[in-house]
Design goal:
Length: 249
């Protein structure tokens, strides 16, 4: 069977078909293509390359045979020590020690005559485990610090600045004599009167019927809600500011 081009498709044709049709186009590279196709047809039909020599039974796979061996240390590479200099070797058993070596240190002066006082501790388990009292929280440490409970300096400065600004503003108002100031008694009386009026409106609001179906009932309810809301705003305004001035008009 030969592979030839017939029209728009490729197919395998019998040689007699080509003889019966001499005008059929046949490529000049056809013999080389057929030879290459037949040579490589069964090249990889077996496992692995076909020309690979099988391993010898004597050279079987051994344990750790595929592990990389560490590089061998050469004798010419100098050793590097942590201290920079190699320490002297340990003296042997038969070596005689050096005699006559004296130190210049005065142990009487360097050693404290007064024993060191141990840290305060407490035992908190039956096995004898102890902890130091300094960081245990059992000793009042922070309340005994210098300056504990005092107001910080920046808060004192801010309070003094606010008081000074308030005094200057009050003095300016008194000098200009623009508006009279509301006293504390009058301010408390005004707040009490507003609260009393709000209680009366609230009592009236609670007396409204549950079913509000007429226009007059709806209007009355809206009017009471608006009056109570305005009274709440006035009460919060008077309670928020300590200094209130009354306009002459």
């Amino acid at each position: 069977m030969l592979r030839v081009r017939t029209g728009r498709s490729l197919g395998f044709c019998h040689p007699n078909y080509i003889k019966l049709h001499p005008n059929l186009y046949v490529s000049k590279h056809k013999p080389a293509v057929v030879l290459e196709y037949n040579l490589n047809k069964n090249a990889k039909k077996t496992m692995g390359p076909p020309k690979l020599e099988p391993p010898s039974p004597d050279k079987y796979l051994k344990k750790h045979s595929k592990q990389l061996e560490p590089p061998r240390k050469s004798e010419d590479v100098p050793k590097i020590y942590a201290c920079g200099v190699r320490k002297p070797p340990v003296p042997g058993r038969t070596d005689r020690p050096l005699m006559g070596i004296q130190t210049q240190r005065d142990f009487l002066q360097s050693t404290s005559l007064v024993p060191k006082k141990p840290k305060a501790s407490c035992v908190d388990t039956k096995k004898g485990d102890k902890q130091y009292l300094e960081n245990s929280g059992l000793v009042p440490k922070y309340i005994l610090k210098k300056g504990y409970g005092e107001v910080p300096a920046y808060l004192r400065q801010r309070t003094e600045a606010e008081q000074k600004a308030q005094e200057e503003y009050e003095r300016f108002v008194r000098e200009q004599n623009v508006m009279p100031q509301l006293s504390d008694e009058e301010q408390l009386a005004a707040i009490e009167g507003l609260k009393k009026k709000w209680d009366e409106l609230h009592h009236e609001y609670q007396g409204l019927p549950l079913i509000i179906d007429t226009l007059s009932k709806k209007t009355r309810k809206i009017r009471l809600e608006e009056q109570m809301s305005q009274l709440q705003k006035d009460i919060s305004f008077l309670e928020r500011f300590k200094t209130i001035y009354i306009h002459k008009n």
